[in-house]
Structures are given as structure tokens and as C-alpha cells.
């Protein structure tokens, strides 16, 4: 069996990572790569290391849609994929933000414009695999989570579900490598500006807050709001979410550890750390996550951490993980990369 | 007028930064540099760029104490400076952690051993210059703040003093460049381990918590406890403290901005940012701090930030700022370095 | 078929890369990992990402030698492997420098001490695969080339063989990422020293010169001496050799390009660049090499370049490539890693 | 005495470094900063750390030319400054490449277009201070050397003048931090592309070759051609030139060392290293150069090195050094910055 796959947005970083992962995938085979700015150019020019796409030229999104790929991995900019995928075949994993929110009003609030296809939103499943595995497996449309939400939710959702942290006052301090800004980059992302520098950005207004709150609300069974502060860190890849929340009355370290253990016991891609704490480098280039939780008994606060590769579990890795489920393949198929050390 | 100065711990990073700053100081002149591991070796071997110490050889701490330097900058490891400085002359700025806490019990709690000279603690002034300028100016013994506390306190103390944030539930998420670990470094601090990596460490138990709580308690007029999570970031210099706290009832962004404006109106080394947010690179090699505050109206939380150079305002810069005050010199004397761009 | 493999020096960087590669190898299975400083400790403590060694504990070198692994990958420090491997089974790929030189006198000259087992040298094949494929395939003992020699030889040997460059006056300016210094590292290799820094080292006396000259002599059919200057570059992985030599009388760019094309036409791991020039990042984590050559008609000089990953084609990757040949496996087995972008 | 100075191209990296240096200069005072893309905007927006320009707004180049600044530091793009400066006042130091070559034909050859003002070239002095100090002091027009030529010439010129290296076959392998590409940067200079990467570029055709050959020809008293290979290194600042040349017949290490010692004996900004080798970090942010030379007796080759900060001695630092001479000021005025350690 070979399943034909197409990548939309194939010139961006997430698109590149999709191609890199799919190169080694036992079942998916890339038959088309769309990059609007490079239509007609050989894919090998952009990716000389990837033999699997050496025979392809970049095409337009429209050409892919008119083709017969059985799965589309869409990594288009915000706003570009809504309404793009008509009903029925092929299956789609959308790595962009257009289909992650159930509520079109929330979309409008956070993205600053009305959603173009609000009626379609209910047909999409939010693909944080560990929490929606069953729905993903049955879905034709999966909205792949954002990188920050993936990390924050992996750290927090099990604790909230288990009633171990208070619903009010959850704080997420997140840090991302520079590839999180995309290949376009721009001012502040040139080497000389980003190197040897560290700063917060988009404080109080980052679009990923909507996703985090939607899913934590689901986990808690009551409305959740979080404060969220993202930071830019001088490294290529990696996201670390450092979360703080108030413990509920009788919470102990043992309770917290058990909640993670239970949530992730059989998860192939989540590593629970005990004595150790998450480190982004240990996950770089992979679909793995590292999570840890600490009870600060002096303050009654719970400190929960998750690290991922923003382009791996935070984007292309999780997209392939979801696609595997959508086609009934082994969940880890093609996701065998091991992180470089050093 | 030339004031003779000696540096203890002159082979460490803070010692190096002291020598670098003092090289250009108009009044202080380094007459001795102690480094126990290098006694007898020429200082120029370690610091070929510094003409002012080219004629010196490293000596022992004891030799410095027996000498006649008018001011000692002590940057010795924890535990090495307590009880070292007898009453009277010379003046001392201690960059280490031995004399920062008023309460010997707190010292024992956080450092895991009794303080060797508890009766001496009351003779030391905690030298976060902006909050203790008057005491520093009159002091003979100044305990220079830790790097993390300097950043956290600059961000939080004015807001707490002004009653704009709740005393409970203050959280500090701090990030430091690798030089914060000192020159000794060790496992995890080699280039290949630290580069392209990011991780929290010392969660719930970092010694700097004691200082932060001591000073915030002072600012609030009631006992304060904070949760504190430090992180290691792949860059040489820079600390960013990203703080979150619950706003008190009627707090507005205007209130928060006013509190910073009032606190730092005439401060030569604190820059309040409005539209912008702190960036560590803009302070690298200087004694400056950048602070900013944002009200997150959705969650009622206050997000306060401060960035410094951990070796500048977080160590050697502030030490010289304090020494300037102790000798009645212009507070900014010798602190004219401008950050490199890029 | 599964072939049992053991790694000696499994706690070093090359050892780590061997384990990482072998994790995904279809035929070799790691049955023992020796690390003298960690005997008895679980391998998973050092390599939590590697499932294939999760059941192992580190053992001593002696225990491995007494065992029944069919192939040994030895990555021990200089001087530690000479005389270690008795005749006969198992097969050995030695990644260290003890068996690379044919001539014990050369060893003594460059390493500063007599070779302990000079009579054994003739039983070792120098494993720069592209130039010694046939001997490697028939060998039981392969001396894996050094990282610098691999790069320098890939750039120069075909040009010298083809008579396109003069034998006199060959110069190699080489640059390495910090992992080239090994995990031990030491002074100058801590993050703060190596970061934002660049310097030559070991000028005129680097041990790798001996290998380069031995193999270039072979390629030229007459004695070759090269000047060689290595540099330390602030990145984890990657080596670039930038070579300069005088062109022989009628040499043209076309001749040079043809020589590379002919030498590497069917090579699975050597990519010849034409318009482009080698970049280390494009090879990171892989066994690939990029080579390019330019004729500087103004000066009559030939500028030849090769980039590799010092731990990949420069160490563990090439070791596995050689081992594949030694066992009659497909040469690229287990070497399918694609470089991260970004 | 205060001398009014204007900076043209004040939004680029060299312009920024000029403003940073001049901030602390005892005699020059910046009265105008021209940046065509930012006319009318406050300079403080771009340079919040620089108090000395806080009162200025960016102006046009024309406005500066019509003004009365006594010295112009011009850091405009190639081609933008030729013909711009009419005869007479004010004095000009041009950091760009338009006026460095004596011979307009050479300009055309290397820059690919005719020089717009060939007759003006003779009125410019090539400002590599150490070799043209007297002419600079008497000049009204100084063409500040390129960054690569500064390093290459500091390493090679004294050896060539002294007849210790052969005129034929000189090779320069140069490495630059990313700021050498200027603030505009562009593809390949974003953080994710440049980080953890290393590559040669512009092989055989870099414009700086013309300058290097012009000055080495002067030093040798006969026509010199060099092969030159620049590289991009993942760090913000710093250039290292690693040069190789054939020793003349009787050359010894002692001869080479003496030549450097003699050439730089009284130089305030050139540090000759003996046991040590140049490191870029030790010069970062300063006007210093480190030089070293080694005789490789095995090959008869001379290996000569020079490291500088490409924005310091390689641009803005040397420009101020030259301007100091042009106004009869102490040569080191305003150039007292010490490198950060770490």
C-alpha cells in the first residue's frame, strides 16, 4: 500500500519538515508539493537532501486540489485555507490556524476578522492526538494544533481534568526557538538581531490563547482563561511551556505525578520526567514531548512543564501522527527520528 | 582623587566584569586582584585586554585583606565571604550571597547550613540601589543583590508597593544566559550541551527566592511568598524576569504604568518601555535595566518584565554603582558602556 | 539476520552517534555498550531517547572483548585501542587514531610516543570508503578516518589523482564545530568561551596531518606534504575543509569538475555542487558530504571544498558505512537520516 | 573643543557602531545622522541606548551635505558615495568601497561598472592606519579599508615588506561573523539559516580582493595577486584572516616574529601574540587587532593570522582612529572600549 500525499505550503518551515518526515514514511508518498512563490521550480533546488521529491516541481495549491492525492497536509498562512477544502475526499490535516476553533466568534475575536466559512468548523477535529485520538482516527478533517498550545495542553490538561489545579489563575510562560516565526521571518529574526537576545512578545494577545482556552475548558468542564506570555529564544527549534497554577486543596506531588502517569501511560510520544526536567534539545527533530510537574509546597503552586520541537510534535510530526491514525496506520509510522546528541 | 580598589574572586566572570568596568572608572583604581587558584600568575595572562591590571599578579584573599585597598569588591563563592570582613575599613561590596539575608534562619533554610557569622548580618545593607540608595550611600558593607532578584524586584516591587498587585500568587519565570552559572560551569554548560537547548532548573528551590521574598515583603509591608522558575537560555549574557500576579480590584494599565514611572522617574539606569518590551541584548555589557508592565484585562493579571545583564546590573555593574554611592561619587561614574548593536 | 554489535567508548560523542544510528539500523543490533566511567549504570540514563539500548547497562571494555558481539565499533581515546584487538573475530571498526597510519614511525612522530603494536598496523584498512571500498569490504579491521582527513581527502584526492593540482604547496584550512573536541571538552569549550568566538588552534602540529599526507601520497603516487590549519567554530556539528592548491599547467574548471564527477559519480553519500558551495548545516546528522571545486584563473589556483558532519561521515556515519560493507550489507543501510531544516 | 560630526548611513550596522563609539568620544559630537529610509524619525527609536543622539531625528544625506558638520563619516552602500563629496570642507572618512582603489580600471573590473568620478580617486588616502598614518593625518579624504582587507593586510603586509614570504601563491582564507553582511541581510542571513551553519561564498570574485592586492603590491614593491576565500560563521561579530604563503629561502620563525614586532612595536591597537593565537571574541566591540605568525618548517610555509571586529577595526573603529589623526587628536581618543568577557 502506498498512499499519495500532497503538501501545501511546501516552501515554509513546517512544509519542509513534512517533506523531511514523509521522505522516510513507509506508507505515505509525496506526489505533489505546492508553493505559490515557486511554481514550476524543481523541489530539489529547495531540498537537495530529499531524494523522495527529487522528481517533483513545485505546483500551485489549485493544482493540488484538482489532483488526486489521498491526503493533504496543508501548511498555508492564516486565512488561506478556510473554505479551501470542499466536502469529501481527500483527507486533510491543516497545520494552520483556520480550523482549530469550534466557535467562529472566538476566531473573529482573536484573528480580528470574521471566519469565511464558519459552517465548516464543526467538521474539523482538533488534533492534539493524545486527547482526541478516537475522533482523529474517524476524521477526514483534522485541525493540527498550534505549537504553543500543544506544549501548554500537554502540561496542563491532565492536571486540570484530575481537579488538581484551580481553574482560575493559570499562567503559561512559553519560550520558542526562532523557527516558530516561520521562514519569512522579517525584522528581528535576522541572525544578528535574534542571536544573543531574549525577549517576550505579543503579551496578552497571542492568537494561540484561544486554542489553549478552548481545550482547557474542555478538560476542566468549565470556562478557563489563561494568561500567556510567549518569548523568543536564540535557537532554531524547540518550545518549552512553563506553566504555573494554584493547587486545589489537598493536592500532593504524588497526585500530580499520578495524573501525568495515568494520562500518558501508553503514549508513544510523551515522556514523563521524574528527577529530571524537560530540555528542548532532547526532542529536536522528533515527535516526542517531555513533561514534568512539581508541587511547590511553600506557595501551594503547581509548576508544570512540557517541551516539544515546535516543528515536530508542534507541527509536522503531530500532523503525520494524526494522518497515520486517519488511515489506520501504526501511529508511529515514519516518526522514528532520534534527536541529535549533541 | 584615586581610590584604591581590590577585587576578590578575580578569575570568575563577575570578577572579570569588575576589572573590565574598573579599567575605565575615573576614580577607582585596581591595586590588587585575588584569585586563589592563580596566585602569583600575571593578571595579564587572564585579561590581555585590560591595560589597567597589566602590572599586577594575582594574590591571595588574605593578602588583599592585609593590604590597604580602600574598597573591596568581593566575588567569592557562597560561604567563602561570611566572617571574612572585620569591622571598620575598608568598605566592602560583596557580590556573593552570604550577606544578603537579614535573617540567619532564612540563610540556613535556603543554603542548607547555619550562617557562620549571624551577628554580622545587621551591618550589611542590601544593595538594590534603586530601592536602598540612601542606606547604601551611608554604608560600609553592601550586599550586592543576586542577578535574578535584581530583575524580579525591579519588575515587581513598585507594583506591590503601590498596592496594584495581590500579595498572594506572585509568580516569577526567569531566564538567564549561561554566564549565570559562573566560569566553573561543569556538566551541561559545555558548548555542545547548552547550545540549541533550553530548560528549567532548580524549580521550587533556588536560593535567590529568599532574597526576592525578603525584599518584596519589605515592599508590601506583609509577608510575601513567590513561586520562582529559573531557566537556562543559550546565550552568554542576559536575564529576563517575566512576572505574573493578580491585579488588585481597580487596577488599570494606567495605574501600572504610573507606578513604574514614579518609581523610576529619575533613575539613571532604569528604562521604562511603553510600546516595546525588554530585550536582553539591548543591555548587554551595561548597567541598564529595561522594565515594562502589561495589564491582561481578560484575566485580571498583571504581567511585569525586567531585563538586565546578569553580569552588569545583576552583578559587577550594580556593585560599582553602589561603590560610587558609598564614596560620594557620581552614581554613574565608570558605567558609561553602551551595548553592542549588533 | 541480526548482527550483534558492541560500542566501545559509548559515553563519548562518537559513541552516542553510533548508538543513535544503530537504533535505526535494519541489521545491526547493539548488544553491549562500554563506557569505563559509567560501568553498571543504565544506558537509558545517558540516552533516554534511544529505545534500542533501554535494556542495557554500561559495561567495561574487557567485558565486551570477552563477549560475542560480531562487530565492535571502537571509539576509545587515542592510545587506548592499540593492541586491544587480537587476531580473528570479531570484526572491528576503530574510530580512534591508533590504527590509521601504515607506518609506525609516522605514528611516533605525530603522537609523540612509540606505537605499542606496530606489527598489527598492516592488518588494518584505512576506511575512507570512497577510496578504499574494496579493501574495506574484505577487511576484518578497519581504521575509520579522522573527521578532518575525511573532509580534506574528499576535496583533494580526486584532483591530485587526476594530476590537476601541483603536489607541492597544498594548503588545507579546516573549520570544525565544537563537538569535534569530544564530550570531555575542557577549558575553552564551555558555552561562554566558545560562543561568539572563532580561532585557529594546533597550527602546524595537528595529528590529522599524518593521515592526510599518507592518503594524498597514495593518490598522487609521490610524497605529499600539506600545511593544515584547523579552526574552532561556534556550532555543535560540521566540518568544512577549504583547500587551496596550485593548478597544473593546463588545468581548467571543466577538468576539475570532471575529476569530481568521475570520482563520485556513483557515490551514494557524496554530493557534488556546481553553482552552489558546501554548507555544513545541510549535512548535519547525516553521512553525506558536499564537495565543490573552483578554478581561480587570475591566480592559477584551485580552490576545493568539502563539508561533512564531523560525527556523521567524519566518524559514526562512515563507521557504519564501512561496517555495512564488511558484512555485505547494502552500503547505505541504517544511514537514511535527513538533515534538519532549519 | 568640540568637533561636529555627521554620520551618513546611520541605520546600518557600521553607522550604528559609529554612533555607539562617538557617544563616548571626548571631542567629536554627532550633530546629524542621515538614513534615507528613516528621514524624520527620531534616532532614539533606533538607538534607545544612545543618549548623545536622543535629541536628533534622521535626516537625508543631502541635508547633511548642506549642513556644517566638520567631519562626515560616510557608511553608504557601494556606489552611493562616489562623487558625493565636493572639494574642500568638510573632512570625510568613507567607510564604503567607492574610494579605496587608486585605479578606476580596477574599480570597474571588480565592481562591474565604471567609476563615476575617477578623477577624484587620487584625492583619497587608503586609511589602513598602521600603514598610512602620515598620509591619513594630512588628508581631508580617507577611504576606510574593508573589513577583510584590514585583517588580511595586518597579517601579511609586514611579512611581504620584509621579504619573508614569496610574492606568488599567497592565499587568504577569511571568516566573518554575520554582521559583515550588513543589516539588510536577506536570504541566508535569517537566524535559522545562518545558525549552526558554515559556508564559503563569493569564491574567486569578492570585491575586497582588489584592495588586498593594491596594498600588498605596495608592500611588496611588485604586483601581487592573492587567492581569497571568505566564509560566513555563525556569530555576530568578528573576522579572522588565516593566510598561507611560501617562505622565502632562509626565513625562520624568528625572522617572522621580528617582522611583526618591528611593524607593530608602537601600535596602540595591534596585539602580537606569541604562544597564543588570535580569537575574535577578545576583540569584539573594540578597535584592537590580534596578529600571529607561525613557520611550518615541514612545508616551508608561513601561516599568518589576524583577528579583528569587523565593525570595529574593520569599520567604525578604524574610521574614528583615522578621524582622530585627521584632526590632530590622540589616536586612541574615544576608542577605549574593552571586550566583554564572556
Continuous helix count of chain A: 10
Describe the sheet with the most strands of chain A.
7 strands, mixed
Q: Give the low-confidence spans of chain A.
A: none
Number of DSSP-assigned strands of chain A: 13
- Strand percentage of chain A lies at 15-25%
Which two chains form the greatest contact, residue counts included?
Answer: A-B, 48 and 48 residues
What gross morphology of chain A would you assign? globular
Q: Please bin the fraction of helical residues of chain A.
A: 25-40%
The order of strands across the largest sheet of chain A is 8-9-7-10-13-12-11
Average pLDDT value of chain A?
96
- Class by alpha and beta content of chain A: alpha/beta
* Helix-strand string of chain A: EHEHHEEHEHEHEHEHEEHEEEH
**Rg over CA atoms of chain A:** 19 Å
User: Which oligomerization state do the chains in this entry correspond to?
Assistant: homotetramer
Q: What is the CA–CA distance across the termini of chain A?
A: 36 Å
Tell me what the structure shows:
The structure is a homotetramer of 342-residue chains. By secondary structure, chain A is of the alpha/beta class. The first copy, chain A, is 29% helix and 20% strand. Chain A has helices spanning 13-23, 43-46, 61-66, 104-111, 129-138, 147-161, 191-194, 208-220, 253-264, 312-326; strands spanning 3-8, 28-34, 71-74, 91-94, 125-126, 141-143, 170-176, 199-200, 226-232, 239-246, 270-272, 289-296, 301-308. Chain A has a seven-stranded mixed sheet. In chain A, strand 1, helix 1 and strand 2 form a beta-alpha-beta unit. The longest helix of chain A has 15 residues, at 147-161. Chain A starts with a strand and ends in a 16-residue tail after the last helix. The mean pLDDT of chain A is 96. Chains in contact: A-B, A-C, A-D, B-C, B-D, C-D. At the B-C interface, helix 7 of B face helix 7 of C.
Amino acid at each position: 500500500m502506498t498512499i499519495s500525499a500532497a503538501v501545501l505550503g511546501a516552501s515554509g518551515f513546517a512544509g519542509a519538515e513534512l517533506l523531511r518526515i514523509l521522505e522516510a514514511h513507509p506508507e505515505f508518498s509525496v506526489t505533489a508539493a505546492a508553493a505559490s512563490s515557486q511554481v514550476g521550480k524543481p523541489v530539489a533546488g529547495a531540498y537537495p537532501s530529499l531524494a523522495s521529491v527529487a522528481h517533483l516541481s513545485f505546483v500551485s495549491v489549485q493544482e493540488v486540489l484538482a489532483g488526486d492525492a489521498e491526503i493533504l497536509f496543508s501548511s498555508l498562512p492564516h486565512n488561506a485555507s478556510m473554505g479551501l477544502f470542499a466536502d469529501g475526499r481527500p483527507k486533510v490535516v491543516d497545520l494552520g490556524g483556520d480550523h482549530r476553533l469550534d466557535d467562529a466568534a472566538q476566531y473573529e475575536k482573536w484573528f480580528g476578522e470574521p471566519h469565511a466559512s464558519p459552517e465548516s468548523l464543526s467538521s474539523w477535529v482538533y488534533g492534539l492526538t493524545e486527547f482526541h485520538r478516537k475522533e482523529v482516527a474517524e476524521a477526514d478533517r483534522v485541525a493540527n494544533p498550534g505549537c504553543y498550545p500543544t506544549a501548554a495542553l500537554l502540561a496542563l490538561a491532565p492536571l486540570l481534568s484530575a481537579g488538581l489545579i484551580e481553574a482560575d489563575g493559570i499562567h503559561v510562560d512559553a519560550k520558542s526557538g526562532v523557527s516558530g516565526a516561520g521562514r519569512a521571518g522579517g525584522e528581528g529574526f535576522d541572525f544578528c538581531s535574534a542571536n544573543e537576545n531574549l525577549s517576550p512578545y505579543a503579551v496578552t494577545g497571542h492568537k494561540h490563547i484561544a486554542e489553549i482556552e478552548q481545550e482547557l475548558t474542555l478538560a476542566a468542564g468549565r470556562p478557563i482563561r489563561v494568561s500567556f506570555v510567549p518569548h523568543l529564544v536564540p535557537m532554531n527549534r524547540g518550545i518549552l511551556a512553563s506553566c504555573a497554577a494554584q493547587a486545589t486543596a489537598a493536592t500532593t506531588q504524588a497526585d500530580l505525578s499520578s495524573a501525568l502517569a495515568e494520562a500518558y501511560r501508553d503514549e508513544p510520544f510523551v515522556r514523563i520526567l521524574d528527577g529530571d526536567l524537560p530540555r528542548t534539545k532532547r526532542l529536536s527533530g522528533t515527535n516526542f514531548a517531555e513533561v514534568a510537574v512539581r508541587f511547590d509546597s511553600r506557595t501551594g503552586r503547581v509548576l508544570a512543564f512540557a517541551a516539544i520541537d515546535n516543528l515536530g510534535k508542534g507541527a509536522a510530526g503531530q500532523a503525520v501522527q494524526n494522518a497515520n491514525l486517519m488511515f489506520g496506520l501504526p501511529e508511529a509510522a515514519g516518526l522514528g527520528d532520534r534527536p541529535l546528541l549533541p
